[in-house]
Amino acid sequence: MRKAPILATCSALLTWVLLPVGAEGQTQTITNTPYPAVIRVAIRGFNNPVAPIQYVQTVGFQEYCKDVLPNEWMADWNVESLRAGAIAVKMFAWYHTLHPTKAEGFTFDVDNTTNFQQFKYLSGQYITDKAVNDTWNMVYVPPDGSVSELEYRSGFPNSENRAFIGSGVMAQWGSEYWGRVAKLSFSAILNLYYPADTLRFI
Is residue 16 scored above 50 in pLDDT? Predict the structure, then answer.
């Protein structure tokens, strides 16, 4: 996941500034914007975030999510952590399909590195694929339903990562702690980190 400072005090302003808006000024929400069919992934050699872009690969959107989750979360983590991660990965990717990037002569939605999310084609595993499938009809969004990215960071291993709670940024290691040790559901884990958003079904 790409690195950025946590600006909790400016979260309301940033939400307003980054609100995805369509060509006619309409906010892009889960009710007027369907899941993308595909996502364009700029491929950098060896998943190196500073390597030149070699080409852009078009991948089915659900396949992309399945090929990110085991590279951002660990496949042997608690299933509730994986489900929370699956939703975060999906929302992050969906947001970026609505905000394409141009760099090095290419147009793309994300790259395959921690500039965005770690992606390795066909790397999905049964348990992480299942987490994606189990939550595919669920989204985690602001009250207006706008398609917004869910930020996350690794956090500290084997720790509850309390500093992230309520920050709008999920700690991956924290999600594992709250799932495995505290026995929280994935929706409760998401609520710890994104308290302004809610779980919705589509």
Answer: no
